[in-house]
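We store sequence with structure; for instance:
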Amino acid sequence: MFEVQEEIAAAIVGALQIKLATKSEAGVRYKPNLPAYEAFLKGRHHWSKLTPDSLERSRKCYEQAVALDPRFALARNALAEHYLAMTANGLIPSQEAIPQVRGGAEAASRIDPTLAEPHALLGILAATLEYDWPEAEQQFSLAMHREPVVPYVRWLHGQCLMMIGRSGEAIVEMERALQEDPLHVLCRCHLAGCLYAAGRLSDAFKQVRQVLEIDENFWVLIGTFPGLT
């Protein structure tokens, strides 16, 4: 347990160093007003739990963030992502989610064409709900050419790569995402699945332990890998 805690702490320190080092290279992103940003962060916190109640809370937070600052493109993209999570968890039908995801991501991209996140979201939408592989490839190509490549993009790209059988590349992408965002439990859960499918059981167990260290009640992991926990 202590070994896992030390690894997570070291990863967090490394992530902070990476962010500080790349801040000037990435340029200055749009700065939303403080109340909008606070609402956005609360939304991310609730969304990460992925329960029906937490997803509803995240939606309200994202809508509040957009209302407080209509130019806050990341909040619009997060609201669009909310609907993808809703259909992925069987809470709304895909035909209801698709226009919400697409419309929100495209609106975010119109507000800030430099953002990579909307392209990544459109890419995973094309891959998971529309099975449009050329569209998915095009959107991820656009997302990956925004420098530096943010962890969110690598996480979604990794999922897409896993779906088309490129598990080795998927593992690399998710590992790189976690170097900068070590507390992203859903990414760790997906990485554990990739490693397990690749036969790397010891590495998969390691990721499972780290997920449980961060959130011992994370239902996605427990439901997906009951034998591992």
